């Protein structure tokens, strides 16, 4: 309450004091008004922005949770944090003038200052982000949570990949201990240009012809996962893939190339082998020459199959072996007008060389001696020789001989 009195000089002094008090009060009032106005204009709008706008999917309170969920969905496709944020247009990303990806929370208006994301998820100290409001603070936390989640997800993915590779290797190793060499051989074979021997290829007549025949892996070998180490790229080339290991246990192949007159791959039939090997010899003997056909190879390599005939189970088809095919051609030549008048006769003898011993297969495996005569010619003393009148007799002898001789089938 204020009261005013007017009384001479005292009254003048008192009036001056009252005026000064009033001025002070007015000044105080103005300061208070200014403070109230300041708090209204600068603080209250910050709370007016609460709560943040709801998500399309149905209202998450905190935008960083939305960001985290969306980024973890995209994690596998966008391993880079920069790309992940850049692709998420809902997160309000923008590209600044320097070409950097900047992140703006969705609820901020365009005038709000933007903050830069950390340059790399692996950097130890992410750059300090200038916080303008409480939501800016949350977006920074969101980024950290997102980075941790992404790192964890990447670690798990890497571990899962490593485990899958380990499992696959173990599985391969268990099923096939030679799988690495097999892969190397297959890779090598895939780089080759295969042009094997064909029926239509010309038969070259040589004084000596050296050939090699590859037989396919049999069932036991396939079950044992053995390696097919032979490749026949052309009609006269053969490659042996030799598995090797260095001192540091690194596996590698040594591919050795060989050349022969003919190389028969596993798909060749006995007829084809005969055409290029023994057939020219039959013609030679009818023209007064001498010929020898010699099959050599380790046990189980296919000598009997080639010379005696293909097996159908335990039955051998003698007609389709080299002996049978030679017999057919010999009797065909005998009836040929060119040779019919020469009165040739055909006789056969079969003996087995077993180590240092020789046995006569047409005389109940009687032991024979091999000696040199006066002309230094090797003679098998006492060897039985039987005249053969037709090819059928020859098959019969071949059959008998095959039963008698010693074999060891793998
Ligand atoms: N080219 C081929 N195609 C299919 N199977 C084959 C081939 N060559 C050989 N075989 C098979 O391989 C097995 C062994 O062959 P074979 O008996 O001819 O060997 P071998 O060299 O005569 O053995 P041994 O010296 O012990 O008498 C047989 O079961 C035979 O059928």
Care to describe what's here?
The structure is a single chain. The chain has 410 residues and is an alpha+beta fold. It has four domains: 8-48; 63-171, no CATH class; 180-268, no CATH class; 274-349 and 385-410, 3-Layer(aba) Sandwich (Kinesin). The chain contains 13 helices and 15 strands. The protein has helices at residues 8-42, 44-48, 63-74, 81-87, 134-175, 179-190, 219-223, 270-276, 279-286, 303-307, 322-334, 337-340, 391-404, and strands at 94-95, 101-102, 211-213, 230-231, 237-245, 251-259, 262-264, 311-312, 315-316, 346-348, 351-354, 357-360, 366-372, 378-381, 386-388. The strands form six sheets. The protein has a four-stranded antiparallel beta sheet, with no helix packed on it. Strands 4-5-6 form a three-stranded antiparallel beta sheet, covered by helices on one side. The longest helix has 42 residues, at 134-175. The termini are far apart. Residues 1-6, 44-48, 55-68 and 74-115 have low confidence and may be disordered. Adenosine-5'-triphosphate (ATP) is lined by residues 215-216, 218, 297, 299-305, 311, 407-409. Belongs to the TRAFAC class myosin-kinesin ATPase superfamily. Kinesin family. This is Kinesin motor domain-containing protein. Residues 70-135 are annotated as: Disordered.
How large is the count of helical segments? 13
Q: Kindly name the structural category.
A: alpha+beta
Largest sheet: 4 strands, antiparallel
Number of E-state strands: 15
CA(first)-CA(last) distance: 129 Å
List descriptors:
about 400 residues; four-stranded antiparallel sheet; three-stranded antiparallel sheet; 13 helices; about 15% strand; rod-shaped; disordered N terminus
């Amino acid at each position: 309450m204020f009261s005013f009195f007017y009384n001479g000089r005292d009254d003048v002094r008192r009036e001056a004091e009252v005026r000064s008090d009033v001025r002070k009060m007015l000044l105080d009032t103005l300061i208070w008004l200014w403070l109230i106005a300041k708090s209204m204009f600068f603080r209250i709008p910050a709370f007016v922005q609460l709560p943040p706008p709801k998500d399309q999917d149905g209202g998450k309170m905190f935008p960083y949770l939305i960001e985290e969920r969306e980024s973890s969905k995209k994690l596998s496709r966008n391993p880079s944090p920069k790309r992940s944020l850049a692709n998420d247009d809902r997160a309000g990303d923008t590209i600044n003038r320097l070409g950097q990806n900047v992140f703006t929370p969705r609820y901020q208006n365009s005038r709000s200052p933007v903050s830069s994301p950390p340059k790399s998820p692996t950097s130890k100290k992410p750059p300090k982000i200038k916080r303008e409001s409480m939501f800016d603070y949350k977006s920074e936390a969101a980024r950290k949570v997102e980075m941790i989640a992404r790192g964890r997800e990447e670690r798990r993915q890497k571990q899962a990949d490593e485990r899958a590779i380990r499992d696959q290797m173990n599985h391969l190793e268990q099923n096939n201990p030679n799988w690495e060499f097999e892969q190397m051989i297959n890779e090598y074979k895939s780089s080759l240009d295969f042009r094997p021997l064909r029926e239509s290829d010309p038969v070259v007549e040589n004084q000596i012809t050296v050939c090699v025949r590859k037989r396919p892996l049999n069932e036991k070998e396939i079950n044992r996962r053995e390696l097919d180490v032979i490749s026949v790229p052309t009609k006269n080339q053969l490659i042996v893939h030799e598995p090797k290991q260095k001192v540091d246990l690194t596996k590698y192949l040594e591919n050795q190339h060989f050349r022969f007159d003919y190389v028969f791959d596993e798909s060749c039939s006995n007829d084809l082998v005969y055409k290029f090997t023994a057939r020219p010899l039959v013609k030679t003997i009818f023209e007064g020459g001498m010929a020898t056909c010699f099959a050599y190879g380790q046990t189980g390599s296919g000598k009997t199959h080639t010379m005696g005939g293909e097996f159908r189970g335990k039955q051998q088809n003698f007609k389709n072996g080299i002996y049978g095919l030679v017999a057919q051609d010999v009797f065909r030549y005998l009836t040929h007008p060119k040779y019919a008048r020469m009165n040739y006769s055909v006789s056969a003898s079969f003996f087995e060389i077993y180590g240092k011993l020789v046995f006569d297969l047409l005389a109940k495996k009687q032991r024979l001696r091999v000696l040199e005569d006066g002309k230094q010619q090797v003679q098998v003393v006492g060897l039985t020789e039987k005249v053969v009148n037709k090819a059928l007799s020859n098959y019969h002898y071949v059959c008998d001989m095959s039963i008698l001789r010693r074999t060891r089938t793998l």
